[in-house]
Write a structure and sequence with these properties.
0% helix; 4-stranded antiparallel β-sheet; 2Fe-2S; metal ion binding; Rieske_2Fe-2S_sf; single chain; globular; Rieske Iron-sulfur Protein; 40% strand; 5-stranded antiparallel β-sheet; mainly beta; Rieske_2Fe-2S; binds FE2/S2 (inorganic) cluster; 126 residues
Length: 126
């Protein structure tokens, strides 16, 4: 069972559909985007680092999300900016999935981005 002091429940894994982002609004945190790539789930900031666009509304192709405003792009797995005008990377959060529920560690400082930044969806929750 996740430590509720460190992990924040975001969404049920079943509600994260492939090839489209799911926006999660929390009371005391900027909006998040939850993405599913194959059987893995990733959580990033939802707001583009170039402007005020919601990346959960962007197109997903080859593991990248394209910003709906100016067509910048980010690698969903790493947060790396992959297309101009985006330069600043997107924050990626460490997550875990317990009983089909997706939790993120929102207090992570970003230095561990890419480490346990995703979690495999258990077969029972697919
Ligand atoms: S706001 Fe996202 S590329 Fe400009």
């Amino acid at each position: 069972m996740p430590n509720q002091d460190e992990l924040t429940f975001l969404v049920n894994a079943n509600d994260v559909k492939p090839d489209c982002g799911t926006r999660v609004d929390l009371p005391d945190h900027p909006p998040l985007a939850v993405f599913r790539l194959g059987d893995e789930i990733f959580v990033t900031d939802d707001t583009c680092t170039h402007g005020a666009a919601s990346l959960s509304e962007g197109d997903i192709c080859d593991g990248q999300v394209e910003c709906p405003f100016h067509s910048g792009a980010f690698d969903i797995r790493t947060g790396e900016a992959t297309a101009l005008p985006c330069i600043k990377p997107l924050r990626v959060y460490p997550i875990t999935i317990e009983n089909g529920r997706v939790y993120a560690r929102l207090d992570a400082d970003g230095s561990d981005a890419g480490q346990a930044a995703c979690a495999q969806i258990p077969s029972a929750a697919r």
